[in-house]
Amino acid sequence: MTQATEKVTRWKEREPILDPGIEEGVKKLTPERIETVIKRVLGIQPERVKMYIQKCMHCGLCAEACHWYLSHDRDPTYGPVGKVRQTWWEILKA
User: Fold this and answer.
1) What is the pLDDT of residues 46-62, one digit of tens each?
2) At a CB cut-off of 8 Å and minimum separation 6, what does 89 contact?
3) Locate the 4Fe-4S ferredoxin-type domain: which residues (predicted)?
């Protein structure tokens, strides 16, 4: 198993970090509200989002400039590519 694979496995097994403010906000979410926000974002700058997703090579070279990635022991799930895969790819697949 590679180091990156081990980190992804650890990410999937770790305990969630709970934040009372976020938890309260999540309780207010509904599928309709989520869809409204996604449509608003895609409506405001659809070309920018589409270009970013299509042009990104998912090579990870930008990770070294990402404070989130660096502050989490270079865990690939915290890098820009990992974050895009966990958010926009899932949203756009739907």
Assistant:
1) 787 778 777 887 888 88
2) 53
3) 47-75
